[in-house]
Amino acid sequence: GAGVSQSPRYKVTKRGQDVALRCDPISGHVSLYWYRQALGQGPEFLTYFNYEAQQDKSGLPNDRFSAERPEGSISTLTIQRTEQRDSAMYRCASSPAGRSYNEQFFGPGTRLTVL
Amino acid sequence: GQQVMQIPQYQHVQEGEDFTTYCNSSTTLSNIQWYKQRPGGHPVFLIQLVKSGEVKKQKRLTFQFGEAKKNSSLHITATQTTDVGTYFCAGRTNAGKSTFGDGTTLTVKP
Q1: What SS3 class is residue B44?
Q2: Contact yes or no for A104 and B99 at CB 8 A
Q3: What pLDDT does residue B40 have?
Q4: Which residue among A31, A41, A91 places its CB closest to the CB of B42?
Q5: Where does chain A have alpha helices with state H?
Q6: Residue pLDDT, tens place only, A41-54
Q7: pLDDT for residue A79
Q8: Which residues contact B1 (CB under 8 A, 6 or more apart)?
Q9: Which residues 62-81 of chain B have a CB within 8 Å of chain A?
């Protein structure tokens, strides 16, 4: 596709359920980032990959959160045993190279609501 | 950890007035990026600054990177209603991770 896509766009789940959020980056982009954005705030870094290697996961809030990018393209962010405080917009971004000097292209986000 | 702060949080201007938002990092940055997010949209890249003291212009927008590479500003001359949105700075260290500020939301009264 022409841009970064994310699915689902909206996810409503009950507390305690697991959710998997998918990101399909721009074809050929090396770097992939996951952010969480609360209303009225900037994107909060969660983790990022270069190719299939997870370079930094320091932003993951706790061990209920995990991410993978097994073939260096599509990535999945998984939240286990969801809690109400996990409700937020989850954004994915991709960047064309592994260096730090490239713009990030953001997807439309997945709005997660935990009831 | 690294913190990036932006001021003001909100700015309301009359169309035609100028607008400036400021970004300050707690640590020295390798580069800084600016993004614009329209209401209901996603952040869209505007520009990247790398060099100490760098100034870049895009039409009515002027971006500056401080000499110490710890602060930056975005100035819009003669705002238009199309400038409405939230402007974020994102500071990057050599580690490659981006830290975003909480943005300045600009509203423009026609």
Answers
A1: strand
A2: no
A3: 92
A4: A91
A5: none
A6: 999 999 999 999 99
A7: 98
A8: none
A9: none
